[in-house]
Structure formats: structure tokens, C-alpha cells
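Consortium newsletter contribution from the modelling node. Members have asked for a concrete example of what our holo predictions look like. Here is one, prepared for the iron/sulfur cluster complex that several groups have been discussing at recent meetings.
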Amino acid sequence: MAKGGPRNPMPHQDPKVRATNFEEVAMGYTEAMALDEAQRCLGCKAHPCVKGCPVNVHIPDFIAKIKDGDYIGASEEIKLTNALPSVCGRVCPQENQCEKHCILGIKGEPVAIGRLERFVADYQAASEKEKPEFKPLDASLAKYKVAVVGTGPSGLTVAADLAKLGYSVTMFEALHKIGGVLRYGIPEFRLPRTVLDAEIDYVKSLGVTILPNIIVGRTFKVKDLLEQGYDAVFVGSGAGAPKMMKIPGEGAAGIYSGNEWLTRINLMRAYSDDYDTPIRKPKKVCVIGAGNTAMDCTRTALRVGAESVTIVYRRGREEMPARAEEIENAEEEGVVFKLLTNPKRFIADEDGAVCAMECLKMELGEPDDSGRRRPVPVEGSEFNIECDTVIVALGQNPNPLIRTTTEGLECQSWGGIIIDEETGMTNIPGLFAGGDAVTGEATVILAMGAGKVAAKGIDNYIKSKYNL
Ligand code: FAD
Ligand code: SF4
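And here is the predicted structure:
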């Protein structure tokens, strides 16, 4: 294919087969495909693609190294600015970021930057012995301590960047496993746990200490950390509090939030006979919402044996917020999309379990604050959809624990922590924040971008505090 032609397609498991297993759906480029795809890159001097990357990966440079067959060098080039390349190569919405700005996209298809990123990062992970030894930039900074609350992509990025500079970093995680949404939200068929484990091991290899099973705000408070010898604290506690429909009948058995459903399956392995985690054996599943969480809920429902899975979404196809690839994958696997439809109430059977949803048809009106056309109910259009399991996947807000246990911390009315955009610092000196805890549910790479800003802010804060 190479220059001028279309991009190399990603090999996938067959949709019928993959909908019954938890193996990875996208199988990754072979070396020949990666070399061929790299040849398509023009190595533009102005590198517009880099401007679309929130962590400024040196894209033309890493692709040039692939052309030379130096895959480890390419992976190291990415790791200069991105500690989680195997993760990003799999889950980033590249079509809205680097690839959107690729010059080849003007007349044809952009370079498959994400697929190349995944290829080299996986190549390096598989070549253990070739990992270069890590040395911090300035070992004298080790006496300055930084605490990181939460081990999602924002926290891992802050930790990696500061450890590379030479700081002593300790991460505190509420759950027994590390990785935030990458672990409990995104399913294994999109992000295998071996891949995630390898990237977390990389962060640990930089000297970062990670302590699970510690709920900051309960075990101790954020301010205790500042008072007990940490020079700065970063809060990357994410957005784990689900939004529900708040309509009649929502308490019926068989209605889950997207987070609960995915946590039971991804973190607590409810699909495996080796685990005791209970989960309803679904037959007819309705998932409300059309973001990434909703797509993951539909596809996990298929994999635990659902006979039918329907997305119920109040807007149209163009407004669906999930990544284009995830929507396509869900459709190929047999998920049905019931668009311009909104639930009005849940109906329970005599045992109190959900058995149907009463819905209203919608039509699109004028654009709202989000720029998307506002859904307006069609009067008298009520109809029922039968179901035995409902998963409400309407997004998440930040968990209130840090906010309510950190006296004086300024937050938005909906719970997001307020920061200085330039430095990532909150109104409390030495306390920084970023990722979903600040923005509400966003993306992995935006959380990582926020982590990079905060790492720089923390470095400057500590250096100016101690006149370094
Ligand atoms: P999180 O990843 O939420 O991590 C926060 C961590 O902090 C968690 O581990 C939590 O347990 C811990 N924590 C919380 N409170 C405390 C406390 N008090 N003490 C200690 N630890 C605490 N984005 C994409 O780019 N691509 C995708 O394909 C994609 N798919 C998604 C699928 C799902 C199901 C979901 C829910 C989100 C998805 N996203 C996706 C969004 C993306 O995962 C998030 O934007 C990103 O993970 C946010 O990172 P974070 O570091 O801010 O927080
Ligand atoms: Fe290569 Fe596209 Fe970036 Fe140009 S814009 S350097 S072609 S990836």
C-alpha cells in the first residue's frame, strides 16, 4: 500500500467469534504492516499531527525510527512524553486528535499514528532484555516527596514525569488494583491486562512507590499528607460517581449503573467461574447512553451471554459521543441502536425486577450549550421496550470524598476541583489536581495532558519553595 494509498487496515477477530470471548478484538499490526504504514508518513517539518496530541508525542520522529527498523528507539521516543504508549495506542480517540491534524487526511486517510504507537510499544514490551536502564535527571531531588492520590492515567503521568526528574513519588489508591478506569472500566477485550500491567511496571521501574487499599479522605486526609512531610500532593481521583436517570422505578432489581456493571465484570471478573462475583445472567439488555462507557457495557453484556443488547439514546447517530471505532465494533457484534428514544419510567414485575422500560420518541431541536441539537420529546409517543437488565451509562461526576474532607478546597457546583490551568494548582498551596476530578469524565489522553501540566507545576513549586 504505502505512499499515496489508503492506510493499512487493523486486523480484528471475527465479530461472531469475538462477541463470545474476552480476548483482544483488535489484533495489532504485524511488522510488515507497520513498516508499510510508516512509509506513508511525509515527515512534515511543521508536524501538525503533534499539535493535536495533548502530551506532544514527537510523532514524525518516532515514525522515522520505524522506517529505519529501530522499533525500540521509536518506543523510547514516545516515552519521552508519554508513559503509557501501549494504552494510548489502543484507547485514544486519535481520529479527534493527532490523526485529525495529519496532512494526509486532507485528501485521503491520515497516517494510522495510534496503530504505529501500539506496534512499537508492544514490540518493546515483548523485548524485555532491551529495556534501557533508568537514571533520573537529577538524583539530588530525591529528598523532596510528592504524594499522588489515584492511579488512573493522570496520576500515573504525574508520577512518571516527577520520578524521571528525580523526585520521590508515592501513589495512594483506594482499590486493591492499580490503573483507575483503565483497570475497572475499559474491558480486557479492548485493553488486555497484561498490557496495562506492563505499563504500570514501567512507571514502577522509574522508582515510584504504589500503595493500594488506601482511601484518601478516610484512611487519612489530603491535608495530613501536606502536614506529614510531602512537599506537594496531586489529586487524580477521577470521576467515579455515576449519573442516574432519576425517573420512576429506577430502584428495581436488574438496573445497574455503567460503573457498577463494568467493575463487577472487569475488576471482579464476574464472567469467570474462578470468581464468586455475582452478576445477573442477562437475556434482554438495554443500555442507556451512547458514550464509551455505554459501548463497553453493551459489548460486555454480549460476552456474558445476553441474547439481545439495545442502546437507547435520546439523540441521533451523529451526536453519539463514543469513539467511532467502538460504535462500529459494537454494531458488528450485533448491538441494536434505538436512537431518538428516551426512557420515561422503569416497569418491574411482581418480584421487583425490571421487565420493561416505558420510552418516549424524541426529535432534534435547536443546538444546546454542548453545540449538539437538543432532543425534544414527541408528545403521546410512549411505547414499551421489554428487558430484564438495564445499564444506565450516562457518565460520571467526581466522587465527593476528597472535596468534602479537604477543608477550604474550591470546587465547581457539580463537584469538579478548581485549578489554575497553567500550573494545575488548586487554591491550597502545594495541592494540585487534574484529570476527570477536575473536568468530569473526559479521555485518557486529556487526563495524561493534565498530569503533565501538574508535574511541571509541582516541579516549579518545589524549586521555588526551596530556592533550587
Ligand atoms: P481515573 O482513571 O478515574 O482514576 C482515578 C483513580 O483514583 C481510581 O483508581 C480511583 O479508585 C482512585 N481514587 C478515587 N478516589 C480516591 C481516594 N479518595 N483515595 C485514593 N484513590 C482514589 N477514554 C479514552 O480516551 N478512550 C476510551 O476508550 C475510554 N473508554 C472509557 C470507558 C469507560 C467505561 C469509562 C468509564 C471511561 C472511558 N474513558 C475513555 C475515559 C477515561 O478512562 C478517563 O477520562 C480517564 O481514565 C480519567 O483518568 P483519571 O486519572 O482522571 O482518573
Ligand atoms: Fe506524518 Fe501526518 Fe504527522 Fe505529516 S502530519 S508528519 S504525514 S503523521
